[in-house]
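Q: Here's a chain of 356 amino acids. Please give me its 3D structure as C-alpha cells.
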Amino acid sequence: MIDMKQFFRIFRYLAKSVLLDFSFSFWTILYPILLGSLFYFAFGNIDNRQMDVIPVAVADNSMAKTILQEVDILEVTPVESDAAGKELLFDKKVEGYIEADFSLNVRSATGLEPTIIRRVLDQIVQAQALGMDARHLDFEHQYTRTVDQEGSFMTLAFYALLASVCFYAMFNSIYMCTLLQPNLSELGARLAMTPLSKGMMLWVSFLLTVLLNLLANLLFVAYAIFILKIPLFQEVGLSLLVLTMGNIAATAFGFAVGYSSRLSLEAKSNITLIVNLLLSAFAGMMGPMARLFIEKTMPFLNEWNPIGLVTNTLLRVNNLGQPQVAWTAVAGLALYSAIAYGIAYGFLRRVQYDSV
C-alpha cells in the first residue's frame, strides 16, 4: 500500500531541490521566453510584408505589351531590342524581360516575382490559344474559393518552438535521474535508505518532472498570448491535452536515457541535446521552407517525430479546424511514453549497489 504522506514528503523535497537549481530556472523557464522574444522581433513583420510593384521589360513589338500595361502589379518598360531588355535584366533594373515571341527571361529562376510574371504570361498565352481576347482578361479574378485561416508563419514557428521546449523535459529527466542515483548524489543515497520502492521512486520523480516542465510551458504560452499577442490556442482543452502528453513522452524518453548505466552523464546530455535539435529542426524550427522540404521528400520523419507530431497537431487543431487529430496524437505519444518508461524501469531494476 502506498504511504501517501511519505510520497508527498519526497515529492516536496525533490521539488525544492530542482527549483533551487539555477539551470532549471534558466533553461526551462527563462530561455524559452528569450527565444520566443527573439523569434517575435526577428520575424514579426514577415506576415505583414507588402508586395511591391514588379518591374518588367517587354519588347516594344510584342503583343503582350498593351495587356501587361493593364496589370496593376507590373511596372512595364518597353524596349526596342532584345539587347536593351537583357541589359536592363543584367543591371537588375527589372525582374524579367519578355521577348516578342513571349519568351521569358528572368533575373532569378526562383522567387515570388518571377513566379507572378510567369503566371500572368501563361494566362495570356492560354487565352490566345483558346481564341480569346487577352486584353479582357481579369487577372484579379479568383477561380477558387478562399477560406481565411487563423494562422501565420509566426504562429507555426511558435508551435514548433512550444513543441521543442515541451521536450526540454528530457533534460530535466536526466537531472532527476542523476539526483536519485545513490552513487551520484547524496540525496539519492539518502532516498535509497527509505522504504520507498524503486518503482514508486520513479513515479514520484516522473510526476514531478512532468508537472514542473508543463507549468514552465504554460508560462511560455501565457507570455506568447498575452504579451506578444500571438493567438496560439483556439481549442484550449485539446491543446493542453496534447501538450501534457508531449511532456509525459519527453519525460519518459529522458528517463530511458538517464537511467542507462552504460552512458556517462556527459554522453546522456549530448544525446538528448542532439535528438532535441534534430527533431525540432524537422518539425519546423529551421523555417517553413525546410519543413516543406522534409514534408515533400521524407514525410515519414514528421509522422514518427514526436516533436513534429505535437507541432502538427497544435497547428491542425487550432488553425485548420481538425480537432479529431488530437486523439491520434495522444495515442501515439502514449505509446512512445509506455515504451520509454518500460525501458527506464528495466534499467532501474538491474542496478544494484553494494554500499551507499
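Q: Can you summarize the key feature?
A: DSSP finds 15 helices and four strands in the chain.
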